[in-house]
Design a protein that fits this description.
This protein has 377 residues and is of the alpha/beta class. It has helices spanning 32-41, 47-58, 72-82, 142-146, 154-169, 195-206, 228-235, 252-258, 267-281, 299-310, 338-350; strands at residues 87-95, 100-107, 112-120, 123-127, 131-133, 148-151, 182-185, 220-224, 242-246, 285-291, 318-324, 355-357. The strands form two sheets. The protein has a ten-stranded mixed β-sheet with strand order 1-2-3-4-7-8-9-10-11-12, covered by helices on one side. A hairpin with a 4-residue loop joins β1 and β2. It is elongated and about 70 Å long. The protein starts with 31 loop residues before the first helix and ends in a 20-residue tail after the last strand.
């Protein structure tokens, strides 16, 4: 198994360009104590930071005029110190009668990212980006083909969730007022390649209000293509998020092509790190598997996948989530035939591996898995 020290020798494609300018400091980047320090440095009482946090994380206020418990003469000063604008909505597309909403955001330096709000009966899920672009170069993913522009800050990640919560609180999403119950790091970027900012965002999400959003860690899913050292590190965080491993092939020969990072950490190493996460946290891991016609959907590969997963035991540590491949511009691949998909599911279930097929949302607005490319068309 790879050790955490080996992360320092990752290829340069994992690093954001040196010219990337850091985003403005935001209260979501800071712990409650750090926010109080910043307020005091601005010549303001430290308790004002707590009030500002309540407006941001609990009331979802973005207009200083609505912060009526703050002196009028202090509002602009506090906003400049702790609530700078991190992202501006460029445009929004809707599907499913408005229940699915994709937003294109322009960040402070002009970088473009996308997030998707998906409302289901009984829950609301935000799919968030963690990087502008992605350096993993998976050939079936539109984001991966765009390359990496830069990492996002903790505040920029959290802002996507708060923006969704704001829409729900203001009853601007069909279905009445609501709250964000789930967050999936399955938007643009490889979350584990921006580990510190992602974990900072997770902490802001689970911190109790008004210090954070007060979400359950069990409602947060962190996805990775298999950065093994970071997967091992995540197991030691003691924050019971769900880990999702984007595997897409059970054998190294094919996965080397579909997920190039596999040439660094093999199928066996990635699955072993996923199993370790389940063992340490007692949280079931999700194995993400895009179903690609005549590429990775053969029945024998289903058998191989089941054998790889069950080699670590059959105590319910894993669940396979099959994803019908979503179309992306210029892709040479398409989704599996329905009969091949059904046979793949049958073989996995017959071998005792819990399996479901993802209910795809937002395909018609290029908001589904693998489609986010931050285009302005």
């Amino acid at each position: 198994m790879a050790d955490s020290a080996s992360i320092t020798s990752l290829p340069l494609v994992f690093d954001e360009p040196r010219k990337a300018k850091r985003p403005p400091r935001h209260l979501a980047d800071l712990t409650p104590d750090e926010r109080a320090v910043v307020a005091k440095e601005a010549g303001l009482p430290g308790f004002r930071a707590k009030q500002l946090s309540r407006h941001y994380f609990a009331r979802f206020v973005d207009d200083p005029a609505e912060m009526t418990d703050l002196p009028v003469e202090l509002r602009s000063q506090l906003q400049a110190a702790l609530l700078p604008v991190l992202a501006t909505a460029v445009h929004t597309q809707e599907a499913d009668g408005g229940a699915t909403r994709k937003t294109l955001w322009k960040l402070h330096d002009g970088a473009l990212v996308e997030s998707v709000l998906m409302r289901y009966p009984g829950r609301v899920t935000m799919c968030v980006s963690s990087q502008a672009g992605c350096g993993m170069a998976c050939p079936f993913c539109a984001t991966g083909q765009a390359g990496l522009q830069r990492n996002m800050s903790t505040g920029e990640i959290v802002e996507q969730v708060v923006a969704g919560a704001r829409l729900l609180a203001r009853n601007q999403v069909p279905g009445g007022p609501g709250r964000v119950s789930n967050v999936v790091f399955m938007g643009m970027g490889e979350p584990m390649a921006n580990y510190n900012a992602v974990m900072g965002a997770v902490r802001r999400m689970v911190d109790p209000t008004p210090d954070g959003l007060g979400m359950s860690a069990r409602g947060i899913t962190v996805s990775t293509v298999g950065l093994v050292p970071r997967m091992l590190q995540l197991a030691d965080e003691h924050i019971p998020v769900t880990l999702a491993l984007s595997l897409h092939a059970p054998d190294d020969d094919l996965r080397n092509e579909l997920v190039p990072i596999n040439t660094r950490w093999s199928v066996r190493e990635a699955v072993e790190a996923a199993w370790n996460y389940a063992r340490v946290t007692r949280r079931r891991v999700s194995i993400e598997y895009a179903m690609i016609k005549d590429i990775n959907d053969q029945g024998w590969r289903a058998d191989m996948l089941a054998d790889v997963l069950r080699s670590y035991g059959d105590w319910g540590w894993v669940h396979v989530n099959l994803i019908p491949l979503n179309p992306t511009p210029g892709s040479k691949w398409t989704a599996s035939r329905p009969e091949d998909e059904r046979e793949f599911v049958r073989r996995l279930i017959d071998k005792g591996v819990p399996t479901t097929v993802r209910d795809t949302r937002g395909r018609e607005i290029d908001g589904a898995c693998g489609q986010l490319a931050a285009g302005q068309a």
